[in-house]
Amino acid sequence: xxxxxxxxxxxxRQVLLNLAQNAAQAMEGxxxxxxxxxxxxxxxxxxxxxxxxxxxxxxxxxxxxxxxRSLFVPFVTTKxxxxxxxxxxxxxxxxxxxxxxxxxxxxxxxxxxVRLPAAEPPTIAETSHAAE
Length: 132
Prior knowledge:
The chain is α+β, with helices and mostly antiparallel strands. It is built from four helices and four strands. Helix 1 runs antiparallel to helix 3.
């Protein structure tokens, strides 16, 4: 029952796969990965828009505090064989469509939240015109 969002499906898949792979690697095969979605209603006021959020939560060890400040900086990685580009690219993809990506982490796991603006439903005039 979520509204559509304006993002290429392959790009969104790339973002979510990157977040899921990072979580799986952090948990080293032990733990739980959960993806949830929710609708965020627009607030009252000018420019307020509804959004769709995708939460990617894991029960891994969490992200070290020293790394949290630079998570989305290119080439920052905690992996021996990682490039440090996955989160930076994911952030650029999400920001290009007017969205945001944020992270929260504790010693009991991490949650990444991808927020994408909802596509506005067509107006009554647009719907009537399309039916003609």
